[in-house]
Sequence to fold (484 residues):
Amino acid sequence: MPIKTGKGYIENLNGLSPEVWLGGERVQGLISEHPAFRGLVESQAALYDMQSEESLRATMTYLSPATGDPVGLSFLQPKTKEDLQKRRKMMSLWAESHHGFLGRSPDYMNTALVAFSSAAGLLEDKYPKHAENLKNYYVYCRENDITLSHGFIQSKASMLSAVISDNPEQSTAAKVHEINRDGYVVSGSFMMNTQGATSEEMLVYPQPIAVSESVNPYAFFFAVPSNLKGITFVCRENTLAGTSGYDYPLSSRYEEMDTLVILDHVLVPHDRMFLYGDEEMAVDLFERSHFHTLVSHQILCRYIAKTEFLIGVLEYMADCLDKSEDFFVIERVSEILITLEILKSIVIASEEQSELNEWGIMLPSPKPLYAANAYYPKIYPKIIETIQLLGSSDLIMLPKEQDFNSPVSKYLDSYLSGAGIDAYDKVNLFRLAWELGVSAFGGRQMQYERFFFGNQDTLMTRAYANLSDREKYIDKVKQLMKNR
Fold:
């Protein structure tokens, strides 16, 4: 089966009917038609439709080595610098389509699977069946264009319960209870399962918890369909206040639901388990797959698209307010333009300095990518602050579209217009800016960007850990001191 269309994506989702809870009620009916998910599903369906557009197919797809059919290019395991560039162009097209607001667009987890599956050779000596499972699963997802979510992060309470309990069965941390003829019985929960309710399958790969047992029940890596018995998705509060594209131009399209996913004695089939029981191997596979590096390449495409969009918002706002020549606007937008050029330079530098890793994958240089990961979360709040400061009270006094269809419309036309723009369009723009800088949707975006790849301590430590040539820099100083 080659690439799927948006229609195919929607049909697959509706056919799954996973157990999803929102606001204390189980979601009933077709997931694609529920107000909380409809906008996101339509936006993501549009991404899949791009793959089938004749003018984009060569950029969005490549020919499967197994069937010769076109498959999504974000599944491509890069073997050359040209492959990295192809991946970047494809991922940039998707990022530009959603303007960087979908942190878990399908190419994110496709790239994660590329990383993990490419390192399957690490498992072959000790766990050949698991290695085969992982490689087969990659092919399955590639050939069927599977939409994935993930379970990586556990709650602090769950992690602590495993540390203080001598008996894994008394802990709430994710664990394997038993292995039987049909598979592995797993229970646990995972935070921040973004798009779990709107994905077809889920990769589960938690950080293992150290125990004294020779077979660690907390160490595993597997994949399961989202509708498997025992899986429940509990949604956070919906940040979408309404479905009107005028009143809520961003959240009506890009409200990307996060869930707490609960696994209650879920039976994971044998062929879907990729690693079990070996704590050291679980850590080793994650590190040597270079997950963070490959996924950072995808993330940077999103950062660039989002920054370009935010520049457009600021420039349009400045025009409407007749403030394009104000030094505040010039200074702040110039700083963001500098940020944009830095990000573009970083992604090119990562490709130019790429090298083949031990698995024959062309790996972008991690140094510039990790620098971007630590840099952008500090810059993003300042960009949003600029929108808030420029918008001022115009971000507060915002009527809704229905007000323009009422008797008070004539007053709105008179008093809420801008420079060269009528009131209707100006309010539409500033409602968009309000969503970015004031609304719950914007608050979630802010928190998401700040902690997308960990807190600042984690990001800075990751960047510092790649200072492999530290002694080279110290030697420069020592050399100068010798020549006194």
Notes: The mean pLDDT is 95.
